[in-house]
Amino acid sequence: MTATQTRAPEAPTRPTDNAARRWTTPGVLLVLVIGLAALPTLQESLGLDAYLIVFGYTLFFWVTQASAWNLFSGFSGYLNFGHAIFYGAGVYVTANLARESDPNIFVAILGGALAAAVVAALIGYVIFHRGLAHEIFALFTFALAIAIGVLVRNVDAIGGGGVLMVSMVTYPEFLGSVNEMLYYLGLLLAVVAVVAAALVQRSRLGLGLFAIRDDERVAETMGVPTFRYKMIALVLAAAIGGASGALNAVMISFIEPEATFGIDVSVMVVLMALVGGRRHWAGPVIGAVLMFSLSDRLTGLGMTELSQLLTGLLLVVVIVGLKGGIHERWQRRPRAGLITFLGVLLVLLVTGLGGGFIGALLFALLAMIVVLVVPDAWWARLVNRSREGQPR
Amino acid sequence: MKKNSRAFSTLGSIAALSLILAACGTSSGGTDGNSSTGGSDAGGSEDPIRVGGTLALSGPLAATGEIHRLAGEQYVEWLNDNGGLLGREVEWVLLDDESNPQTSAAAYNRLISQENVDLLIGPYGTANITAAMDVAERNEMVFPQHSATLTYAYDYDRHFPLFASGIDSSRTVSETIFDAYAELADEAPQTVGFVVNQNPATDFIAHGHEDAPGSVQVAQERGLDVVLEVDFPQGNTDWGPIAQRIKDADPDLLWVGALGGDSPALLAALSQIGWEPRHQFHLFPAPGLLLGAGEVAEGATSTTLYEPQEPYLSFEGGQDVSEMFTAAAEEAGLPYAVAEMQAGLSWATWQTITAGVEGAGSLDQGEIADYLVNNSIETVLGEIDFDPEQNNYYGDLVAIKQIQDGEFTVVYPADKTADGTTIN
Amino acid sequence: MQQWIQALITGLLLGGLYATLSLGFSLTWGLLRTINFAHFGFALLASYVTYELSTVHGFDPLLTLVATVPIGVALSLGLQWFVSKVKLDMFGTLVATFGLLLVLEAAISRYWLQDLRRIPTENNPWLSNVLSVGPYTMPVVQILGLVAAVALCGFSWWLLQRSRAGYAIRASVENPTMARAFGIDATRLGYLIAAISGVSVAIAGSMIGILYALSPASALIWVPVTLAVVLLGGLANPVGVAISATALALAESFTRQFADPSLAQLVALGILVIVLLFKPSGLFRPTVEVSER
Lengths: 392, 424, 293
Hints:
The structure holds 3 protein chains of 3 kinds. By secondary structure, chain A is mostly helical. Chain A has helices at about 20-40, 50-75, 85-100, 105-130, 135-155, 155-160, 180-200, 205-215, 215-220, 225-250, 255-260, 265-275, 280-300, 305-320, 325-330, 335-350, 355-375, 375-385, and strands spanning about 165, 255. In chain A, about 60% of the residues are buried. Chain B is an alpha/beta fold. Chain B is built from 13 helices and 15 strands. In chain B, strands 8-7-9-10-11-14-15 form a 7-stranded mixed β-sheet, sandwiched between helices. In chain B, strand 9 (about 255-260), helix 9 and strand 10 (about 280-285) form a beta-alpha-beta unit. By secondary structure, chain C is mainly α. Chain C contains 11 helices and 2 strands. Chain C has a two-stranded antiparallel ribbon with strand order 1-2. Chains in contact: A-B, A-C, B-C. Chains A and B meet through helix 2, helix 10, helix 13, helix 14 and helix 17 of A and helix 1, strand 3, helix 3, helix 4 and helix 6 of B.
């Protein structure tokens, strides 16, 4: 996949391939993004549901949040269970701007990013100076998020006495309806988040964070400026999370502290990143797509207990079956995984068996996971047999 | 070998998961969604009319969401048994919003643009209703809803609220409560203590909003002495100190801004420290739990809009909701299987959308809205006149019920009492 | 003055519940390296079993411990068996047990519905059973809960610090390779810890069932306070758990009595945040120090 990747278990890439390989991923992603950006315009002529626009926005939202979270926590090993602090800072910027008049969405997004970055800088400065152990850090941030929720509930200047409403925002007309505006800006933020994560991963900063994850003391003796790197990554992650939160306030419209700073967002981003794989920028993207399309399909079943049960089981199965997440496992069989995913997706889309695009996406991901968990011994036998021209 | 067995079980699990998903996906006929259709008297070859909505079927609001689900299912069954809507069968496409406004907003978008529903019905819970109403407004769909309390905030001209407490609900509800107690004349409470859950719904009735006064202010206006004002968080776990403060303040009337299980927990803590309320009011308690609190809850009052007693039983559909809900709730295994305010609100909301469609004679959203605004609607809550001058709110239909001899009875106003029962 | 003493009593009694609920979580995290979110599901299940047996079958709510404790122990042992079989890292256990919590919630809402449940007063003599000393009152069931908390924490302390098994447990966590070389059977000791955790979570769950209204979503309201107690008390430190549970409960109780009940949680979590900033490992030493992961 990426040539400069630090921890690919395989990947002795041939030097001649380097230039081509280096541009494959960005190229594919660029095409994908252009396609996604054109979707609202083409949706009607392609005969797709308008719901895809709303689904798309929410999917981008989770991709953004999970990628932002991973940029700091996945790379550095400091699992932040209070990501909702940054998300919530953004939400509350929009909500407070909306008290006076309908805010401009770009002002809100920038304000949200800035507010979250400031909060992160404060928290990071204090925490990293104290040097909390990884697991203590995890649950400390969890408690902090809930404490901030209670604080906002009780400070009317921020929380508006419990409820704030965002009914409308202003934005340029070419962005279309509210749903389309959310879709485009959501996509933009998702691209920013993913690109930021990918760039960080390939940079000195990324290498430093990986060193911190592996062993912070060793990293320090190697001359990695651990404090500075952790601060930069945390503030960057927070800014992206806050920007996306500011946009999401338009979607929720009814802003309450418990829901905003509660465990919904904090825990969900962690689960998405761990399921997808937290050592690579692509991990949280895969995790977000899998978990959100699953939850979307399950919502449609209207059988609450069953959907809770299936989500719970999937978490157990994926974490036990694919330690390190889907992406890490995928790197061992990239071609087979990709072919399965695209093949199943295509077949389901053409035949309509998956029950629409979202269903097809979900089943294709599940099929890919199945291919990835086949044990190496069986896999070798399967592959060999097919190479020998199917001997009977 | 061991590794293989794990991989094997993983494979098995994922295969099972896919099968379940696939089975469920196709079982509802290609379209997703938990559709419930009742009897088949209605409709010929035509497609059913699809009514879409979400409810809190999981999460913190699910206890009440469950009541609305049962009531709605019964109504749809009743409707289809009685000829359906415009001669067509009615199908309810119900999604779970997980008590979460974001999920609710996305789900309403989905109902409109993917499930292609013809009509909408509101979810449960103020937050979810507010989020969903925005979606309805963007799509110009008629939006009847049963339980949003922040009445000042809703100005969408096609929303039809059934929580019939007037546009200034924090004032009207409060006045009704104190009016009821004023009936006691010489023995009416002189001092009042407020203990209020911070949930937006209870907080709004108790404390009001900018220029809408709440109960505390109303009490002061009426010359009552407010001796205690305490807010407690949602999910409060320690009632001892709050009980102690009530005991110290010793109010004539204990006004509890309660939700769900708050009331019995507070009453237990009060009885442990040996203080018995002389008069007690509870805003939105779970009625079954309050009755289960036993002797300490005797005399407790609460608000209601529908109770299974006269005159409500004589209102349009009043008998049906009581009988059908009770039967369904007993079958589902709910310990308190009585149709009261929530079931009544749910029924009235369905009656409103039904009346709008039948009245307009079409599924055109504009025509339905016009009909609802221009005609009075018969519901289990009584007759309702949506008033566009007041953002479609109208008069105050809130009544006060009281636990007398271990059962809820409406005691105020007089025309809502069964046989002139009075507050005590 | 009377108010102060009453708030002190209420806080102490509440501390008992906090300690019982947190002990198991702390032990499994500190000694078994499992951050067990399913813990809250175990407690919820115990609460519902207590509700069911006393409301439907008419048993004394306290007597239901006969059923809930074995259930808690069985679940706890089962989880420990599973975790040691699949060998997850600490954050892996967190995701897996969170999944398990969802499964338990689903099972509970399948059987008891989403409806709020509470033992009616007529089936729950313990709600009105109060010990009065002068002007002060204390619910007997909470006194018993406090006794149980002290006993559990005390026993765990003795086990970890004074018994041969405890020495072996600490050794096997600090240095598994060395411990194995000395013939210490870490697996069996792991089950011992899991069993204690199961007992305490079941007792806490039954107490919750006696005192509060239940709904499937209510498992999560106990998460913040448990984490606060565990972090403040030092991992797997039973004495730390007892003291920090009491301290946090007292802080909450005084806030509820003299300031505003809505600020109680903020005060408790604020204390945690401040303490951690000055003493990152909690107020008390963890029972074993493990080098980071």
